[in-house]
Amino acid sequence: MTEQAEWSEATMPDQRGISRRSMLAAAGTIAGAGLLGIAAPAAQAAPRAATPWYPSAKFGIFIHWGVYSAPAWGDAKHAAEWYLYAMNVTDPARGLGTREHHLKTYGADFDYDRFIPRFTARRYDPRAWVRLFEQAGARYFVLTSKHHDGFQLFPNPASDRHSVHFGPQRDLVGELFSAARDSHLRRGVYYSLGEFYSPALGTPPRNPYTGAEIPYTGYRPVSDYVTQYEHVHLKTLIDRYDPDVLWADGQGYHEFGGGPIFRPKVWDWRSEEILDYYYRNAANRPVPKSVVANDRFEYAHPDFATVEGDNKTYVLRPDPWEACLNIGKSWGYNENEDPANIKSSARLLQLLVEVVSKNGNMLLNIGPREDGTIADWMSSRLLDMGRWLRINGSAIYDSSPWQRAMDGDVCYTTTRDAFHLIPLRWPGAKLTVPGDVPIDGRARIRLLGGHSGPLAWTRTADGVVVDLPSQRTDDFSEEFPAVLRVSTR
């Protein structure tokens, strides 16, 4: 992932155009609101979705795993997966922590590519990963097939810089996709279009301390980066693994104190060509399948917009979008992670509820260790989310937004047969919501996970007041969201 603020939201246009594969979403925004005697506004009457599955999925797992998982170190300015670039930064204002750490720990002659043999995947158990993702309540995953350091986790004819030839000597993408084949999970791959340093982009890697040009392990010279390298990689991913999601990154020109990266200033990824190939591959088969691509391919009609990080003010959008965010600061595994940056399970669920109420999906990242194990502080949070979703998932999956996403700390979602009030924290003995919330005389309000019958409610001058139990009955602390289901039955 890209770690700079200006490289995520600020450079990304607000994509609201209709994809050429768009169709009306079948989710029940109107059904849920109409059941309770209220008409949804025209703007929400026909939310657009690129495919039937994606806007209903709501929750996916992002996986950042690669050579950077071996040094596993980030500083206050740079996340761990940016280790290769951060060790080349010479501008103190941009942060020298990684550069100084590398020199002290490994020495000036230890090039980044010497970490490749240390990326072993020796305890990688893709079936265990799939079980964890299922237990977390995820509906899809996206694995980094190539991050900005150019190391590929899959074999291909364009390069030997990959995990079958070096390091683990395993097809890491293929193993995870195979393990997930019989699961309910949709499968996706992340691919960095550009790279930090590449001879083919005019930016060969150099020793950060001497400036001497150094070999790019496994690189095969090409004269046309896009045709002979990038598009070959992407076609290999499409043909070999048949992904449901293509997730691009690393598409822009940038200079963050360690030299220009990703691409020259004037550049064309020719993404329409590769995405036409992707969509045709999905359509031209006996049983066509639904696939999506994000907005970082720099093409005309993305299937969903990407909002990176949780430091944004999320807004209700009419078209599909995705909040990709992290449990901590780094996307790759970071032994130097500041505990203060690690979000609690309750906070992650609050973010999930807010994103879903605003018509988005959450793609929550984990960063496995170099050996393929997942830290307990990551897996425990995923399991907490799954435990909450098993009780409250009917308000999340297959839901649509109401005309407003939230009032204060209370979010709203609709489904075919219900409207949901979701306070982000336990509100106490009473919950008051505005009077225009679709609750009429026929409404019955139940607390999901509760052991009591319908809750008493009254309409007052202040709005609708719902009487709640004296304490939670769903085994979650008061910091976790709660779900009140409003229906006529």
TrEMBL record:
Q: Does the keyword Oxidoreductase apply?
A: no
Q: Which key words tag this protein in UniProt?
A: Glycosidase, Hydrolase, Signal
* GO BP of this protein: fucose metabolic process; glycoside catabolic process
The highest taxon in the source lineage is Bacteria
Which InterPro entries does the protein's record reference? FUC_metazoa-typ, GH, Glyco_hydro_29, Glyco_hydro_29_N, Glyco_hydro_b, TAT_signal
**Database matches in PROSITE patterns:** TAT (PS51318)
**Enzyme Commission number(s) from the entry:** 3.2.1.51
Enzyme's top EC category: hydrolase
Transmembrane portions of the chain: none
Q: What is this protein called?
A: alpha-L-fucosidase
In which organism is this protein found? Answer: Amycolatopsis taiwanensis
